[in-house]
Amino acid sequence: MAIIKGFKAIRPKSEYAEIIASLPYDVFSDDEARKIVKENPLSFLAVDLPASVIAEDADPYSDAAYFKIKDIYDDFRNNYFMQEDEDSLYIYQISTGNITQTGLVCLAAVDDYLNEVIKTHEKTRIVKENDRTRHIKTLQAHTGPIFLVYRDDDTIENIMTKNMSSLPVYSFEKKDKSIHKVWKITDKVDIEKIINQFKNVPNLYVADGHHRSAAAVRYALERRKENPSYNKNEEFNYFLSILYPMSKVNIMDYNRVVKDLNGLTDKQFLKKIEKYFTVEEKEKQVRPQEKATFGLFLSNKWYLLTVEDKTFDKNDPVASLDVSILQKLILEPVLGIEDIRNDKRIDFVGGVRGLGELEKRVSEDMKLAFSMCPTSIEEMISVADRDKTMPPKSTWFEPKPLSGLFIHEF
Q1: What is the C-alpha to C-alpha distance for residues 368 and 58, in angstroms, rounded to an integer?
Q2: Is the pLDDT of residue 310 over 80?
Q3: Using CB atoms within 10 A of its CB, is residue 404 exposed (0-12), middle (13-18) or buried (19+)?
Q4: In sequence order, which residues have a C-beta less than 8 Å from that of residue 82 and are 6 or more positions away?
Q5: What are the strands, taking DSSP E only, across 151-231?
Q6: By the 8 A CB rule, do 375 and 323 touch?
Q7: Fewer C-beta within 10 Å: the chain N or C terminus?
Q8: 209 and 318 in a common domain
Q9: Exposed, middle or buried: residue 228 (CB in 10 Å: 0-12, 13-18, 19+)?
């Protein structure tokens, strides 16, 4: 059973919501973030990412960097935000293009994470986990919701739909044409019904936000150690989350670009991969439509790669992922890229940028690109249910919830 609760949200005054709300800190490079904050000092990136508000050559993990964002947060808190006076739940809807994604903003339980009611599918990096832990400790707040997924539940869906008939507390459009709406659930009976119904939901799954959730749990354990008489009701025992039914989640392709052919010529490279793949040259861009197929862009030509079934175990939820197949059959043995998390010869391009971005990167600083079929939400859940981990950069969720619309203090 999943434990959730409402909270006294700290959130922007309505006239500031659009200008403050920002995409999550990990979507941007440090340079991109600095530029955004310079153009819009009220962007929540100024709170979310220390590197955005310090000099380019300064240490983003220094005491001074965290003190800086604390000062900015206090200014935002005092001048541009308001705090609810009662525990509430919220409905957050994002519409972009033909995609509409609606989730429930609430608090999830640290103990559910520790007891694996909340399941993960990704390993965390200690440097990033340390950063987010310190961020939480400095602000004494969770500022970006963890993106959690659950199996569809009609009762929860119906209550949320009913509450969306009222006027939203926020409704605005960002520069990227995405439309964001937020409704506050005020009916205490509905709130209680939702909380009770989640007790029938066996698991929640971290879709996006593994470092932030791990940091929230780590901080809570530190607080528990400092307060051995804790009763689990303290606010630090919960973390800010947005819960989506799995049918409403949109996963896009997460493509790869590689700097060189590991000393091979084009002809030698294509010959090597023909050991496991059928290679067909195509006249147009290749966006794979089926699992175990890949697009390859090399020397201004597109190819469709189709892997033979016998090369991977269909019953293994990790080995059968397209990202695993590419890693096992091409990236590692042919291109010599063993550690895709840290190897500087490989980079990753979210599907939201389009296949044209792959061609652009190859024309600039890369030699070849692979277009991927998106990992499905069912594949992600299958991996998590078996307590396994997916390779890095396996999923790109789009649209992404904005940071700065909801803050949970403790």
Answers
A1: 34
A2: no
A3: buried
A4: 10, 11, 12, 13
A5: 170-173, 179-185, 204-208
A6: yes
A7: N
A8: no
A9: exposed
Q: Which amino acid is at 225?
A: K
Q: Quick: pLDDT tens for 145-154.
A: 999 999 999 9
192 lies in the same domain as 278 = no
Summarize pLDDT for 378-404 with one digit per residue, the tens. Answer: 999 999 999 999 998 999 999 999 999
Please work out, in degrees rounded to the nearest 5, the angle formed at the alpha carbon of residue 321 by the alpha carbons of 317 and 323.
145
Question: Which pLDDT value is given to residue 275?
Answer: 94
Q: Are residues 278 and 227 in the same domain?
A: no
State whether 262 and 245 are in the same domain. Answer: no
Backbone angles phi, psi at 278, to 5 degrees: -85, 125
Helix axes 154-163, 188-198, angle to 10 degrees: 160
Q: Is pLDDT above 80 for 71?
A: yes
State the total domains in the chain: 2
Sign of CA dihedral 399, 353, 332, 319: positive
DSSP 124: P
**What element of type H or E holds 410?**
none
Residue with tokens 């604390």: 70
In which band, very low, low, confident or very high, does the pLDDT at 333 lie, cut at 50, 70 and 90?
very high
| CA separation for the pair 352, 251 (Å, rounded) | 10
Hey, what are 280's tokens?
Answer: 């067909």
pLDDT score for 261: 99
Q: Is the pTM of this model over 0.85?
A: yes
Give the range of the structural domain holding residue 202, as residue numbers without chain letter.
4-250+398-409
Q: How far apart are the first and last CA of the chain?
A: 24
Asked if 230 and 278 sit in the same domain, the reply is no
pLDDT band at 27 (very low <50, low <70, confident <90, very high): confident
Within-domain flag for 333: yes
What is the rounded average pLDDT of the residues 211-221?
98
The arithmetic mean of pLDDT across residues 200-218, rounded, is 97
- Three-state DSSP class for residue 270: helix
Q: Please report, as a single letter, which amino acid is at residue 114.
A: L
Computed over every residue of the chain, the mean pLDDT equals 96
Query: Residue 338 domain-assigned?
Result: yes
Provide the token pair at 237: 């025992």
Distance (Å, whole) CA 246 – CA 377: 7
What tokens were used for 225? 């150690």
112 three-state secondary structure: helix
Strand partners, 307: 277
